[in-house]
Amino acid sequence: MTTLFPHRESSAQVSAAVIVFPGSNGDHDLLQALTLCGFSARFLDAEQEIPIDVSLVGLPGGFSYGDYWRAGVLASRSRAVRSLAAFLQRGGLVIGICNGFQILVESGHLPGALTYNHPPRFVHRWVKLRVTEESARSPWFSSLPSGTELRFPIAHAEGSYRYADSSSGIRPAIPLLYEDNPNGSMSDAAAVLDDSGRILGIMPHPERACDLMLGSQDGLRLFQAAQRYLVRRPIQ
Amino acid sequence: MKFELIVRPRPGARDPQADAVSAALHRSEWSHISAHSVGRYMLLSVDAPSEEQALAQAHSVCEQLLVNPLLEQYELRAIREPLSDEPSDRNGAR
After folding, report:
1. Which residues of A are designated catalytic?
2. What's the Rg (C-alpha) of chain B?
């Protein structure tokens, strides 16, 4: 019988927390992917602070707080998200997927904004992505050389990434590009990094690309890279 | 002190909601009507010692949380008369 997750890693356990907001729906997928890659992963209620033993925080996809007022804005003021600053000072890694990406932008941890797709429609399909040179300094991409192609699914209506045009040429660090832009994102951006490279916001779903039976295993490469980084560099 | 907050897309920003509503209208018997801009509305209540301070606090929450300056612009309108929860026909409201 074929198992869904045959490649569970056995190296040292690093703690991860998946924040669960009212309206999250990708939380179980993300927990499963992290567990598969060797993390000791657990759920964290949005109104709890990030525990001291946690090394990686995941913000899952979904419709936090019903996407009321503006997608991600209400979740950005939750206790868990407000405790991200102290967590990041300890050296941890953060990934926000889809709605989680929106929350990281709304909380100011990542630059820019996410808005309605252009053309305006919900998109859900598999997409091809290409890793850029801007991924080089990020722990999330340590096993993914520039030019690597990945295949992840997308499912969103408000995934068009916008940032302020600047005459200085400064723009956000974009580690992943859509091969065929599905939502009108500026510069074909499918993901964004903060200045440290430790915070990754990504609109496609790597956690749903962790088994060949489901269409792709490429998502494992991000989570495995994060796990290896945190084993080498435990947080304070 | 109460304020009406009206949020609209910034001039020049894409407005896919207006585009979609206009397209639907144009397919119907209201083909002569277009949605020029689609935004959001909120009625805010601010506890503050003065109207001036209430307005400053209302602007503060707009700029720091309720409005995304990259994509949106906003307008605050002070409401000085008692509000009724009941719909009225004032100003054409129904």
Report:
1. 98, 205, 207
2. 16
Residue of B nearest to A184 (CA): B14
Mode of pairing for the β-strands spanning A123-131 and A149-156 = antiparallel
Chosen from B19, B65, B66, B67 to mutate, greatest number of chain A CBs within 10 A: B65
| Contact residues, chain B, for A158 at CB < 8 Å | none
For B34-53, the pLDDT digits (tens) are 999 999 999 999 999 999 99
Q: How high is the ipTM of this complex?
A: 0.81
The tokens describing A160, both together, are 């068009």
CB contact under 8 A, A113 and B19: no
pLDDT digits (tens, 9 = 90+) for B11-33: 988 898 899 899 999 999 999 99
Helix (H, G, I), strand (E, B) or coil at A198: coil
Cross-chain Cβ contact B42/A69 below 8 Å: yes
Joined tokens for residue A214:
């489901």
The span from the CA of A56 to the CA of A72, in Å, is 20
Nearest residue in B to A119, CA atom: B16
CA-only gyration radius of chain A, Å: 16
Amino acid at A5: F
* Single-letter amino acid code for the residue at B8: R
**Contact indicator for B7, B44 with CB cutoff of 8 Å:** no
Mutate to test the interface with B, among A67, A116, A161 (most CBs of B within 10 A): A116
Q: What CA–CA distance (Å, rounded) separates B44 from A218?
A: 46
Written as six digits, the tokens of A48 are: 């709890």
Cα A76 to Cα A70: distance, rounded to the nearest angstrom:
11
